[in-house]
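INFO batch 0412 | record 1 of 1 | parsing
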Amino acid sequence: MSLEDSPSIDITVDGADEVDAGLDLIKGYGAAFLREKVVAAASRRLIILVGREKLVPVLGSRGKLPIEVVPFAVGFCRRRLADEGYAPALRKNGAATVVTDNGNLVFDCAVGPITDATRLDGALKSIPGVVGTGLFVRMAHTVLVWDEGRVTTMSRTASEREQEGGPPS
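INFO prediction complete | emitting tokens
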């Protein structure tokens, strides 16, 4: 089913590469993050399933942030990202450059702890040619964490969702 056929999705269940205590995420180590972000934004609820090893004290703890760029702008984006201190590495699978389902390329950018994910996401997306980042800020409603045979639930409260402009339930 396409988003054209169904403009709203009740629930999306997905994984993440990093999850902080505020339920903000880094996704994209699998290179489908732009499409996943569109689906998440079209969903009433986003539920994330992770193992305990994906929990981090602050986003950026693993030192990598995926950024999707259009092929035409790859050189320009590489220079701009490098100038900003992100040391972009074009993602490869062996000798072949990884191409997303959208026909774009992915830079894995070196990052340290991200203190303001909203600001960073906006700054990176303001670079012409960048079409998306792996930052999923204030999108997850619930995170289910698997740890040695037990599941722990992390959730945003209804008042937090309302303050962020989302539905209360």
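INFO post-check: The two ends are 25 Å apart (CA to CA).
INFO record closed
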